[in-house]
Amino acid sequence: MISMRVAGRLLTIHRVLVRYGLDDWVRATHLYRPLRFVFWLSPWTWFSRRRGTRGERLRRALEDLGPIFVKFGQVVSTRRDLLPADIADELAKLQDRVPPFDGALAKARIEASLGQPVAALFGSFEATPLAAASIAQVHAATLSDGREVIVKVLRPGMREAIDRDLEVLHALAGLAEAYWPESRRLRPREVVAEYEKTILNELDLMREAGNASQLKRNFAGSNLLHVPEVHWDLCRPDVMVMERIRGIRISEVARLRELGTDIPKLAENGVTIFFTQVFRHNFFHADMHPGNIFVDVADPKNPRYAAVDFGIVGTLDPRDQLYIAGNFLAFFERDYRRVAVLHLESGWVPAGTRVDELESAVRTVCEPIFDRPLKDISFAVVLLHLFEIARRYRMQVQPQLILLQKTLLNIEGLGRQLYPELDLWKTALPILREWMRERASPRTVFASLREHWPDVAEAVKVLPVIARRAIRRAYDDELVVRTESESLEKLRAELRRQRRRSDALFAAGVVFLGGIVWIGLATQPSWVGWLLAAGGVAWMTRQLTRR
């Protein structure tokens, strides 16, 4: 059953869609066709007035609906190649132009969390936000020694608003599983649960600070990516202080060109950073929309990325890492059978799927795509076609891969926005091949053995004890089996003896009765009857007294 709170929220969503004239979009989806009468009977529909372009109305609706919907708009806005230009332009404003909350509230929250007045904590503090996002906003400040920092503060009431919308998503996932056959493959409950973990992690700024520190260590000494320094003594779950980043937003392509930035190199470096994070570090920034990425153009010929907002990061199981890399390489080499086998081995398709049928389906989808130059092949297009195969073969959605898929599409969108001629495959494949070679190299195997040597040594120490126990257990089991075998053989012998005795008693009885019949019929010679009767009695007596 849907709770009253969920029902109220659904009603609010309906009202916002109607307010901004988006109800036509909703009614156009087949899932809502049975409920069209609800829209026509709604008073909000009768009096709605459409103001602004469709992109502006969509952006304002997402802002009104709250952080979860704003996050959705942020993700979609990076795929300008999949969206009409007017909608993409408006959704791009969600990156950092969400309406801010009062700076006085931010100061009060900082003082409550850190236990000191803002004036004592910072040399200067700007009450007007530098930028505002769906979950938090940031203020420029300086430390007492003059270093520039940004102060990130959570929006008031965020946890309550997100809990409410998560409850709505869980309710909708439950309805989908109950009434939509396709849900078994898409696993909506698991997808919502995975998203819930992600969004709730964003509400803990101490976790974000830890993510930033880890990412900074991973790229220490690198000329590809700069990660700001965290000031841990000024960090709390709802407040975080970091080094301020100076640079040009990645979305300001015209400005980057004016400064003579090497755009092709910048685009390729972005792809290199992503694949390095995923495969070498297994720790990747999973919220790489334009509002979170800057470019340091101190040396325009060697531009350097700078990232902010580390609330969402992703990691992969080593098994998933291996299968993903193998799939990418197999696609590039057009080894469609390998793709099919990898999908079966990973459990992404049902176990009963025939390899040759899946191989044929993948070939049918990919061959027309690969007829074009590699630089013209979009990961987004490949994924969309593969989703068609997924539906046909009941391929289950892998919740643990959702962040990776989202980030990969974001990276491709950003890269092609910077440099439409970007050959994503050319940049990524050397990294993947090198990673696969390193995994199998003797150096990597030895390094792994050395890393896990303490565990191996402890296991070696207990091996004699385990061996002794195993031998003793096997010996005891053998004795039990031998004893049980002997007892069973004795029982079988006793049963055989009893069966022979029963047969003998029956035969003796037949002989005795035969003698009695002989005598009764006065058959001659009469002594034969007496002999048979006596013999039968003697035989029965012997069997009954025999042990």
Account of the 3D structure:
With 547 residues, the protein is of the alpha+beta class. It has 4 domains: 89 residues, no CATH class; 165 residues, 2-Layer Sandwich (Phosphorylase Kinase, domain 1), CATH 3.30.200; 134 residues, no CATH class; 92 residues. It has 24 helices and 11 strands. Strands 1, 2, 3, 4 and 6 form a 5-stranded antiparallel sheet that branches. A 4-stranded mixed sheet has the order 5-10-9-7. Helix 1 crosses helix 10, helix 5 runs antiparallel to helix 6 and helix 10 runs antiparallel to helix 12. It is elongated, with a radius of gyration of 39 Å. It starts with a helix and ends with a helix.
**Ends distance:** 77 Å
Beta strand count: 11
Strand percent estimate: 5-15%
Second rung of CATH, namely the architecture of the largest domain: 2-Layer Sandwich
Task: Give the CATH level 1 class of the largest domain.
Answer: Alpha Beta
List the domain count as a whole number.
Answer: 4
Q: Can you tell me the CATH superfamily of the largest domain?
A: Phosphorylase Kinase, domain 1
Counting helices, strands and paired strands, the structural category is alpha+beta
Helix content: 55-70%
Q: Count helical runs.
A: 24
Major sheet: 5 strands, antiparallel
- Rg from Cα: 39 Å
In short:
The chain has 4 domains: 89 residues, no CATH class; 165 residues, Phosphorylase Kinase, domain 1 (2-Layer Sandwich), CATH 3.30.200.20; 134 residues, no CATH class; 92 residues.
